[in-house]
């Protein structure tokens, strides 16, 4: 099992797919990293030699991944919230940020039904 950026890469998968287990690395970036490191994309991670793993590590160190990327994204969101831009306001309210509908499908952001108390009807 290869360990890069404190992430155990799945040994049974191809190198390109296995690298996507690292936060911030998708299929395209994984393919580019493999090409730059000179590692076969179809080779299983368990079959990689120590030299190949070292080359991959070196290439991945050039990219922003894992903790640094998460921190950067959180800082960007916090900055938007501080300057009160439209997206920042949507983040504060817990609503969809990128223009999605809210009257029927925003349950992932808004959560399931919030009960609103009914006013009592005044009897005659």
In short:
The protein is mainly alpha-helical and 124 residues long.
Notes on the structure:
This protein has 124 residues and is mainly alpha-helical. It folds into two domains: 3-63, Helicase, Ruva Protein, domain 3 (Orthogonal Bundle); 68-110, 30s ribosomal protein s13, domain 2. The chain has helices at residues 15-19, 27-37, 50-61, 66-82, 86-93, 107-110; strands at 3-4, 7-8. Strands 1-2 form a two-stranded antiparallel sheet. Strand 1 (3-4) and strand 2 form a beta hairpin. Helix 2 (27-37) packs across helix 3 and helix 4 packs across helix 5 (86-93). The termini are far apart.
Which key phrases capture this entry?
30s ribosomal protein s13, domain 2; 2 domains; 2 strands; elongated
């Amino acid at each position: 099992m290869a360990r890069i950026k404190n992430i155990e890469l799945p040994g049974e998968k191809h190198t390109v797919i296995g690298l996507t287990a690292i936060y911030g690395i998708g299929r395209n970036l994984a393919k580019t990293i493999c090409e730059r490191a000179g590692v076969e994309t179809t080779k299983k991670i368990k079959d990689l030699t120590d030299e190949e793993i070292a080359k991959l590590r070196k290439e991945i160190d050039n990219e922003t991944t894992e903790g640094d990327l998460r921190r950067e994204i959180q800082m960007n969101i916090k900055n938007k919230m501080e300057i009160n831009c439209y997206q920042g306001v949507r983040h504060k309210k817990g609503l969809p940020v990128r223009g999605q509908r809210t009257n029927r499908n925003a349950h992932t952001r808004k959560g399931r039904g919030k009960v609103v108390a009914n006013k009592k009807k005044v009897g005659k």
